[in-house]
Structures are given as structure tokens and as C-alpha cells.
Sequence to fold (194 residues):
Amino acid sequence: MSATSGSVLEKPRGAVVVRPSTESDVPAMIAIYTHHITRGVGDVVIEPTQADDIKRRRKNMLRRRLPHLAAERDGVIVGYAYAVPFRKRPAYRYAVKHSIYVHPDHVSTGIGRLLLPALIEACAGAGYRQMFAYVDADNVASLSLHEAHGFRRVGLLEGVGFKYGKWADSVLMQRAIGAGASTPPVEIAYSRTT
Fold:
């Protein structure tokens, strides 16, 4: 059927741009996050995330030289990613853990494959040496994504979450970034603010 005979042509999607997030991205990030934490929980009432909470967390991350990235396609935020300290004590200041959230309409479209390497590069550039992820053991796509980007499974946390009506295991994954543990680190300013 030709385009003039009534077929519906799918609008081509624009390129995805991964960039540092801005405060104007916060409402879209809240919507994405809320979808992921409330999906399938049933009768559990989860207090909604407030814009001020995300703005405050985002500013804390940026002050610590931790990346907070947004993925944008055609002016719409389709995902975001960030890193936080792995642990608060100064000895662990070269290690981060990260999270990636993708808009439900854009899952399995390559957004995570763009966000994760950008996040790794930003963390390495800021002087961090190890990156961790906690991945739901049933999330095969996320496990595969992380393994494709050099993460290894270093632990299994059994029954640590209760969501969607069942106990969930988490896989602890780790990847060296930058020089990893092969050389002494360049000092990163450590802040005790939370």
C-alpha cells in the first residue's frame, strides 16, 4: 500500500542525546521513577517522590562530582542515569553504585546501552575507580546489558527485596573503571554532606 493510499507511516525517531541532566528534567524523571517503583506493587502505598527531593539529590551528586545524566529524544526525556557513593565512609570514596531508569515506552530501544557507557566514562573522568550495580536477578536484559559493558557478577543477595508480591534476589555486579585498582588514586574531594 502506498503512502498516498491511506497507509499510516511511522514517524522516524530522532537520535538520542545523552547529556547532563537539568532541573527542568526533574518532572520527567519523577514520572519515569514513579512508574518503575509502583508498577505491580498492588495495595502497597508508596509515598510519591517530590520534585524537591530529586532536585536536592541531584545537586548533592553534582557537588560530589558524580554524574547525573539524561537521555533525550525529540525533546522528550526517555531515560536517566546517575551514580552515588558506594558507601559513605572515606575509604570507599573511589567507588560508586549507579542506577538507570528508562521511560516505559522506550524500554528495549537502546536507551540503557547509551546511558551506561556515558555514565562509566563520566565516573572514570571524575577519578572514580570501581562501579557497582544491584540488578534484580530476574531482569535478564539488565544483567546482559551490564555484562556487555564489562561488569561481572560478584555476589547474589537472596531474598533482599519484596516486590510485586514475591521475594526478589539481587545480583551484585562490579566493574573497574579508569585505572581500577592498578595504581594509587588521585585524591577526590570527599564530602560528608548527604
Remarks:
- Residues 1-12, 40-45 have pLDDT under 50 and may be disordered.
- The longest strand covers residues 152-163.
